[in-house]
Amino acid sequence: MSSDPAPTAAAGLSYASTAAQVQAHVFPSCGAASLSSAAPARHPVVVVGAGPVGLSLAIDLAQRGQRVLLLDNDDRLSTGSRAICFAQRTLQVWDRLGVGDAMCAKGVEWNLGKVFFRGELLYSFQLLPEAGHQRPAFINLQQFYAEAYLAVRAADFPNLEIRWKHSVVGLLQQPDGVQLDISTPDGRYTLQADHVVACDGSRSPLRALLGQESQGRVFRDRFLIVDVTMAASLPAERWFWFDPPFHRPPEARAGSAEGGQSTSVLLHRQPDNVWRIDFQLGWGADPEEEKKPERIRPRVAAMMRAALGRELPFQIEWASVYTFACQRMPRFVHGRVLFAGDAAHGVSPFGARGANSGVQDADNLAWKLDLVLRGIAHPALLDSYGSEREAAADENILASTRATDFITPKSAVSQLFRDATLALARHHAFARRLVNSGRLSVPTRLHASPLNTPDRDDFAGAMAPGAPAVDAPLGDGRWLLRQTAGAGFTALVFDDDSAAAAAAVAAGAEGLVPVRQLHLPATGLAAQRYDARPGTVVLLRPDQHVCARWRQPAPANIAAALRRALGWPEPDDQNA
User: Fold this and answer.
1) Domains and CATH numbers, the chain
2) CB-facing half-sphere around the CA of 312: CA atoms within 13 A
3) Could you read off the pLDDT of 389-406 as tens digits, one per residue?
4) Separation of alpha carbons 234 and 99, rounded Å
5) 546-550 β-sheet, strand order
6) Are 390 and 328 contacting, i.e. CB atoms less than 8 angstroms apart?
7) What digits encode the pLDDT tens for the residues 168-189?
8) Calpha distance 531→463 (Å, rounded)
9) Closest CA to 282 of 386, 178, 149, 409
10) For residue 206, which of 101, 238, 397, 537 sits 20 to 30 Å off, Cα-Cα?
11) Considering all CA atoms of the chain, what is the largest pairwise distance in Å, rounded to the nearest integer?
12) Which residues 6+ apart lie within 8 Å of 153 measured at CB?
């Protein structure tokens, strides 16, 4: 690495920056001349792509003490709002990275969704039906704000360097690392990395350099996505219309090439009086024509009359036309090059599964890469990143495909079923479970993970090995997940007299990996959610997934579970 000081990652940005300041901000770039040398510099980890996924991963690794180089081929943050719906699990990850409070302070919180059919409200659904969670089900926040807050946080770490306008143009896998050729505005240079993580988006140059492709399905339909600024008094809710009478574009009425004839509209509120509206257009729509203001304004005005009963002045902030696609790479791990986020997988946007699943990729990978680099974990632990997140991608693709098929029926029979289901949903709860306007993002339950220790004791409830840990208030202003954040492995010890359990955890972890103990009463909401009794121990991975639980563990039980969670072979696995 060059001895020259790196440009400050977020120079000129702060958590108080306005939308205009964020989108106009240009990051300084260090030139290739100061980085070239006869012997290419070597880095433990190079992350490529400074979007929400790459920034989250780089911060996570830096927070764990790793030296990280983050490369991006641009010198600006994303334009337009792009991803806007960030789920509770993503907020909990960002809490651990030190930016959750800033995201929630700016974002619009929401828990309620409403479904309309042909102009009539069918029903509402609550995404967070129970109390006792610090974070809401979702916030809406423009992607450029999320990236800006992450960039500001990244500047706190002297061991995290960001190089803007540095594009990877060559990649060579080697037995002990990866060689990257980098192009900058003033020249090229070469560097070496122990591991490279590609977070470089759906058109991933690194994927192309490795000769890899994403495989899946592209849906023959087009959608207009538009952000408008207006002073509307609508609540912060998700509104979804099936076949709204105010939106019947000729292309959709005529049907797509696959026979669909339905339309849909989605409305979300964002910060700064910005509203996100998605209009289904039909496959025959001309993308360039539909982005023109004279085509957008009548659609937005019609939606206002339906939702508000009147038109309000509004300004178009950003517009794009997109096509649904559900695809992924067959494998996310290719030697010492790993893929995350849109570079590895992509889904249609209804359900907010794109950016949220990408941040969960980063959450899954960072602790594994850190412990492998430290020699604490077996190198095969990185293979579990592939198996766990490939399974998560399949889950998201299945949910997104089903939503897309429901929203955009591709045959007369499919549309008949869809419309009959919607009609029944007006009065019958069972039909509402069949309505699919985009099953919203939830964290994947890693029940098939090889890192799990299967239960040997009887437990009730959802906190089985592989489940994402659930939050709960601790009664003194603290929250459970905040107390486990950044602590590596954590043992939740439920016992008012916890000496025996505490001793078992300490003895079992000795010589393997540090394990923090969080002592909790065996009564109250946390104990209820984890089905705890006096002496119960629940072992959490560093990414806050349950990996083992016992009623009264012995040290050997703890040691075996930790070895499994670290990827070490267990020749005589007696399951804890």
Assistant:
1) 25-107+138-214+327-395 (3.50.50.60), 445-576 (3.40.30.120)
2) 18
3) 999 999 989 988 888 888
4) 28
5) 515-520, 489-494, 536-540, 546-550
6) yes
7) 999 999 999 999 999 999 999 9
8) 8
9) 409
10) 397
11) 74
12) 59, 97, 98, 99
- Residues 311, 252 contacting (CB under 8 angstroms): no
Tell me the C-alpha distance between 130 and 141, whole Å.
Answer: 23
pLDDT the model gives residue 22: 94
- Which own/partner contact pairs does 307-310 have at CB distance under 8 Å and 24+ positions apart? 307/232, 307/234, 307/239, 307/267, 308/232, 308/233, 308/234
Q: What is the pTM of this model?
A: 0.93
Instruction: List all residues 6 or more positions away from 509 whose beta carbon is below 8 Å from its beta carbon.
Output: 489, 515, 558, 559, 562
Report the chain's terminal Cα–Cα distance, integer Å.
45
pLDDT at 257: 35
Number of H helices, E strands in the chain: 17, 23
Question: Residue 218 is encoded by which pair of tokens?
Answer: 């592209």
pLDDT score recorded for residue 520: 94
- Beta strands of 65-214 (E only): which ranges? 68-72, 85-87, 108-110, 112-117, 120-126, 138-140, 160-164, 167-174, 177-184, 187-198
**What angle (nearest 5°) sits at the alpha carbon of residue 271, between those of residues 269 and 273?**
70
- Dig out the tokens for 404 from the structure: 């897309």
Instruction: Give pLDDT, residue 260.
Output: 45
Confidence band (pLDDT; 50, 70, 90) for 438? confident
Q: Is residue 256 very low, low, confident or very high in pLDDT (cuts 50, 70, 90)?
A: very low
pLDDT digits over 515-560, tens only?
A: 999 999 999 999 999 999 999 999 999 999 999 999 999 999 999 9
Average pLDDT over residues 355-361: 95
Dihedral of alpha carbons 340, 73, 292, 226, sign: positive
